[in-house]
Amino acid sequence: MQLSLQTDYALRTLMTLAAADSQLTVDWIASRYDISRNHLAKVAQRLQSDGYVQTTRGRNGGMRLARPADQINVGELVRNFENLQAFVGCMDGGPGCAINAACGLKPVLAGALDQFLSHLDNFTVADITGKPSTLIEQLSLVD
After folding, report:
1. Were 32 and a residue from 19, 72, 126, 139 both cysteine, which residue would form a disulfide, CB within 3.0 to 4.6 Å?
2. What is the Cα–Cα distance from 23 to 143, expressed in whole angstroms?
3. Across residues 34-53, what is the average pLDDT?
């Protein structure tokens, strides 16, 4: 399974905000990870609308975590950002599969997806941030 860039950027943003424990701008984060500022802005907007970050507009604006990093579950975030029904096109029960009634693949893949998400449910943003000072130090070295 491959996570979308949106999910990847969302996780990196939350990890960075957790490590910094302060307000950061989309520009700062985008430049440190060498990713598209526009794409990250869309991710930040979604993080804000989903309640993961708080944003402040204006000259001294930026974003910060809306709740402590140890209260943001990685599995929940992945569920919110990924279209998991599209894991395999036929999993949503829609038409288009000639062997739908006899297929044994869907339950196998559904079980694998459940295991994947269950594993992610064991982790919070605080867990995946690692050593906050090291993460921020590494990002600060990037020009």
Report:
1. 139
2. 19
3. 97
